[in-house]
Specification:
The protein has about 325 residues and is an alpha+beta fold. Helix content is about 15%, strand content about 35%.
Length: about 325
């Protein structure tokens, strides 16, 4: 396969309370809520997109807040993304240590692959990291209450837990065109050929003795990778189905991008999403995320959808 995959696009997690989620990612972490919509497969649940000013691919964390929907607590284990890592400047580590201390958020300070890292959890128990590095030219959301030099720039890497790693290594190299760049302990680091460091990295943790994870509250649902063109997406789909025998969805219209979904060898649910059209197609850039946006086919149900969704107390995201 050609090297169609440019790096990470977004990550989507199943979380608990919508207000807690909104407060944590916009107020404590200072990300911008760039889109408020619903789960296109379940209109009774919000789909929040957090990222930088435009919500550019590789800066996006998205969540489904499922509180009150009868969804069980997830079981963390193999076949899942276990850790979501965000990118900050190395010089910002001190700022974030002080901020987490001020807000009574427990964290652990470690070093990974030569970079300083702060490990912590969100209110639903997702394992998160801030990675200090000097290799990220992306512009963060700096118009909020965290200044640009300290603000989160986007996703840095994700860490997958895999029971049988060799088929996963092979898939990443041969199908996604990723290259192996480092090994530390039981983790091998891969990155896409098309780009620098932050936002292109995928860490595979060898958990040969691990138990299989189960999706639910507090677990990552899937990780998405960016691709430029629909034609490339369809070529990749044909290869996955006809040459690798994987079960792949039909092309799904997610309004802000087009997607296909499949499970890789190792069990993790992957999405491949187009870079365009982006989040500014249905509201101005200066007002992204402020209104509930629905796909066209759900507009007839807007009154009922709005009545079923929990009310969110929105707080200013600007200075």
């Amino acid at each position: 396969m050609q090297n169609f995959i440019k790096g990470l696009h977004h990550l989507t997690a199943t979380v608990n309370d919508a207000q807690e989620d909104y407060d944590f990612y916009t107020q404590l972490l200072g990300l911008r809520l760039v889109k408020t919509t619903v789960n296109f497969d379940n209109n009774q649940v919000y789909h929040f997109y957090y990222g930088n000013k435009l919500g550019e691919p590789s800066t996006i964390m998205t969540t489904f807040p499922y509180k009150g929907q009868g969804v069980r607590d997830g079981v963390k284990g193999t076949g899942q993304v276990m850790i979501t890592s965000f990118s900050i400047a190395k010089e910002a580590i001190g700022f974030w240590k002080a901020r987490f201390t001020e807000y009574n958020l427990a964290f652990t300070e470690v070093e990974k692959f030569g970079n300083p890292v702060l490990m912590f959890e969100d209110p639903s128990g997702l394992e998160l990291e801030l990675v200090g590095n000097d290799h990220d030219a992306r512009a963060p959301w700096s118009e909020g209450h965290i200044s640009g030099e300290n603000a989160i720039k986007g996703l840095y890497a994700v860490t997958m837990s895999i029971k049988d790693v060799e088929p996963t290594y092979q898939f990443l190299k041969e199908t996604f065109g990723f290259i192996e760049v480092a090994t530390e302990g039981n983790i091998k680091r891969f990155r896409s050929l098309n780009g620098g460091e932050a936002g292109t990295l995928l860490d595979v943790r060898n958990d040969a003795d691990g138990e299989r994870g189960l999706n639910g509250l507090g677990t990552v649902h899937h990780v998405a990778f960016r691709i430029e063109k629909n034609e490339e997406q369809m070529q990749l789909r044909e290869h996955l189905v006809n040459n690798l025998g994987l079960k792949v969805t039909e092309l799904k219209d997610r309004k802000y991008f087009q997607s296909i979904y499949f499970r890789i060898p190792g069990g993790v649910l992957f999405e491949v999403a187009t870079i365009d059209p982006g989040f500014a197609i249905d509201e101005p850039v200066d007002h992204l995320g402020e209104e509930l946006k629905l796909p066209e086919w759900e507009e007839v149900n807007r009154t009922q959808i709005e009545a079923n969704l929990p009310k969110i107390e929105r707080k200013t995201q600007t200075v």
